[in-house]
Amino acid sequence: MSASSGEPLLSARELTKTFTSRGPGGVLGRRVAFTAVDRVSFDIRAGETLAVVGESGSGKSTTARMAAKLMEPTGGSLEFAGEDVTRAEGPALARFRKDVQVVFQDPYSSLNPRHTVERILMAPLDYQGIAPKGGRRALTKELMERVGLDPDHSQRYPAQFSGGQAQRIGIARALAVGPRLVICDEAVSALDMSVRAQVLDLLRRLQRESGFAYLFIAHDLAVVRRIAHRVAVMSGGRIVEAGPCERVFADPRDPYTRTLLAAIPRINPAWDRARRARADRASDPSQEAPHG
Amino acid sequence: MIRYLIGRLAGVVLILFAVCLFTYLIFFQLSPDPAVMICGKTCTEERIGAIREALGLDRPFLSQFGAFLGGIFAGRDYGSGATLVHCPAPCLGYSFQTDESVWSMITARLPVSATLAVGAAVLWLLVGVAAGLLSAVRQGTWWDRGAMALALGGISVPNYVLALVLQYVLVVKLEWLPFPSDVAFSDDPARWFQSYLMPWMVLAAGYACLYARLTRTQVIETLSENFLRTARAKGLSRPLVLRRHALRPALTPVTTLFGMDFAGLLGGALITETVFGLGGIGKLAADSIAKNDQPVIMAVTLLAAFFVVVGNVVVDLVYTALDPRVRIR
Amino acid sequence: MSARAGLLVVEDLTVTLPTTRGPVDVVKGVSFTVDRDDTLGIVGESGSGKSMTSLAIMGLLPRGATATGSVRLDGEELLGRPDRELRRIRGDGISMVFQDPLSSLNPYYTVGLQIEEAYRAHRGGSRKAARAVAVEALTQVGIADAERRAGHYPHQFSGGQRQRVMIATALVCSPSLLIADEPTTALDVTVQAQILRLLAGLQERTGTGMLFITHDLAVVSSLARRILVMREGDPVEYGEAERIFSDPHHPYTRALLESVPRIDDDAEVWL
């Protein structure tokens, strides 16, 4: 499938976040300002994945929080489906929450350890005051199946799942209300390599099935390459480069992007090609016995 | 640093002002009419009126409060003409009961409370921290379990119970110690020590138990820190690892708590002083509350607040010195 | 088999941890060799036992854990030695760099002191002499203005600089073996590249043998001559790096390599 063009689903214009704190000196201390995000603008269209990459302190997580309306921007505006939601409250905010869901980095700490999977998955519906069609149990099982969990485990607790499975619970919870945009804040960073690949595959499959958009926050360019349609590279609170995924990786224009790409550790390309060639031969019997 | 200190001092002044205002409001405005209290049983309307005028109780609240504050810093005069009494700074008024200057009542009793607090603090730090350390290092042994069970028991025993038991055993049965009395150190150092030993033990017991448990938890937590593993990986000897890398991080929070506890005790140890009949600030507070002696109650409250607020600042400064992460440029 | 005995020879190392459900083997019969001037990469995901292996070599296993088999440094058996004797080897014969440099440095002391004490634990001498060594070590790992920086506290350094400080501490006694346990996992990718370059450069200069533990196959591919892949305590595959990467025998190694996302050339794109 391809990303649909047309009106943006989420549109951020000049989003800015400045943190102020009092310096030393208690009530007499000078106010110290720090700009974490500096006039950041981006659009996400329905069904597409925009990845925001950057190193620690780049402002990517603050950007994600503002986009999810978990944090008030100091300046700029945020539009969702044509509606200005920058200062949305009450029913407008509730609508936004139903359409935009977040998956966090640490699967365990973002799931209540005392609640069963069913209760966790149904919580977004409970907050929204929506009664699930076909009953809670049925919807829970359906969600668990969609994210590749055993539906018979709906009465278990988060600690009884592995890290990758716990993250699947987090994803299922985001899906419960049928969102149009899912914000993944370093959603696969805490996972082991092999598990990470599986969860990325799951995220792609879910997007294919349901057509929602992703705002995907990550520090790992290799992960981003695997999931994003478009990439925005952040550094020092600003977007230094943005563009289609293929273009940014093949032809990085900003020096910082180039440094970032060059720094990624790589498996010796010759070894890797040899391995893949060998794997292809093994899976393709027609090439296996050329001497026939 | 200078800027920080000035800021903190401004904060202290602000808080103490607020404390003054509220205690004044509570004790003079919301309590029974002081004039009636002073006047006693055989009282006429005229006498009450005269007393009110002498104390300035007929004036509006803010003016009264201003006079009170002014008295602390500059002294004040009560009454007028022939009945004029000058109360030199720092003036906290006169006791309704004995007509004594409240300031001199406090200065007379503060040494007793301070002696009690210092002695008890030395005792509970030595015993509590040492026991906690030993327990942490020997975690899971019979010593650890025994000491911690004892400490938990110790926390649960009210100190007046402990006071009575100790008094019965040490004074009445074994006759090892005299009955406590406030002997001055300069009069008879040996008797002074014997007199205070039991009150110190009683006052320190609860704190020692608490500190033993806290120290143990802190040390055990520190022992699992990554930097302790680093210290061992460098090949440092076990005593050095413990002394340098475990102790300082573990005891810094204990120091903070100690500062607050000690400051609190300077404001009087009400139960211990009362049980042993020691004339400290705590006893003064208990007596003045029993007799509704408002100027004294108020002064004692202010004194306790003063120690706590100043103690808080001292603790913060000490913490700053102990933990480089909060050091101020 | 070469006649030259390895610097570190580990044979049939098994580590057992006590749990509430009885003892569990977290490392099961692992064998490998590290030579001087050589790097062995141990690769595994969480729970593979790779970190327990390194702690067993250092004699720093958690309370109640037992290690059997053989760990020899320069032919000298380390397993079963009393802590007192192992202490002389830690930081001198074998040093270690850990994953999270911030929590691995004591926040209460200057980095200068923390390097000095590593030196003095083995070489003795005055604090002043040790300070000079510490400053030199900091310079070696690329900390500018080392003399002044030695008086700073860990929180005054960036993540990458902190790891440089850890490396300086580890190398101050010129150990024959350096164990690096996920030394770049907590760092940003550009900083990671710098630290990897630093480690490679230092090894070239000093000839230190290195045991590099990581979850990231791409990280070791440029660094290690040989690779040991571990999974749930089991040694899965052990061999020359080129062979492991180009012709992995074990299905788990293949799956692990398959899961490494590619960034260059013919990476699969799913649009």
Mean pLDDT across the residues of chain A is 89
Tell me the strand percentage band of chain B: under 5%
In this structure, how is the largest beta sheet of chain A organized?
A: 6 strands, mixed
Strand content of chain A: 15-25%
| Average pLDDT for all residues of chain B | 86
Cα(first) to Cα(last) distance of chain B is: 6 Å
CATH topology of the largest domain in chain B: MetI-like fold
CATH-assigned fold name of chain A: Rossmann fold
Radius of gyration of chain B: 25 Å
SSE sequence of chain B, one letter per element:
HHHHEEHHHHHHHHH
Helix content of chain A: 25-40%
**Structural class by secondary-structure content of chain B:** mainly alpha
Helix count of chain A equals: 11
Low-confidence stretches of chain B: none
Keywords (chain C): ATP-binding, Cell membrane, Membrane, Nucleotide-binding, Transport
GO biological process, one term (chain C): peptide transport
GO cellular component, one term (chain C): plasma membrane
Subcellular location (chain C): Cell membrane
How would you summarize what this structure contains?
The complex is a heterotrimer of chains A (292), B (329) and C (271). Chain A has 292 residues and is an alpha/beta fold.
Structure explained in plain terms:
Chain A is α/β, with parallel strands linked by helices. Chain A is 39% helix and 24% strand. Chain A has helices spanning 60-67, 90-99, 117-128, 136-146, 163-175, 193-210, 221-227, 245-250, 255-263, 269-283, 285-288, and strands spanning 8-22, 31-45, 49-53, 75-80, 83-84, 100-103, 181-185, 213-218, 230-235, 238-244. Chain A has a 6-stranded mixed beta sheet, with helices on both faces. A 4-stranded antiparallel beta sheet of chain A has the order 2-1-4-5. The radius of gyration of chain A is 21 Å and the shape is globular. The two termini of chain A are 40 Å apart. Chain B has helices at 2-29, 34-39, 45-55, 61-74, 102-137, 142-156, 159-173, 189-223, 226-233, 238-266, 270-276, 281-290, 294-322; strands spanning 76-78, 85-87. Chain B is an all-alpha fold and 329 residues long. Chain B folds into 2 domains: 24-87, no CATH class; 105-326, MetI-like fold (Orthogonal Bundle), CATH 1.10.3720.10. Chain B has a two-stranded antiparallel sheet. The longest helix of chain C is centred in the last third of the chain and has 18 residues, at 189-206. In chain C, helix 5 (127-140) crosses helix 7 (159-171) and helix 7 packs parallel to helix 8 (189-206). Chain C has 11 helices and 10 strands. In chain C, strands 6-7-8-3-9-10 form a 6-stranded mixed beta sheet, with helices on both faces. Chain C has a 4-stranded antiparallel beta sheet with strand order 2-1-4-5. Chain C is globular, with a radius of gyration of 19 Å. Chain C has 271 residues and is an alpha/beta fold. Mean pLDDT of chain C is 92; it is low at 267-271. Chain C has one domain (8-259): Rossmann fold, CATH 3.40.50.300. Classes of the chains: A alpha/beta (292), B mainly alpha (329), C alpha/beta (271). Chain A binds chain C through residues 2-3, 55-56, 163, 192-197, 200, 204, 219-223, 225-226, 229, 245-246, 249, 259-272, 274-275, 278-279, and chain C through 45-46, 159, 188-193, 196, 215-219, 221-222, 241-242, 245-248, 254-265, 267, 269-271.
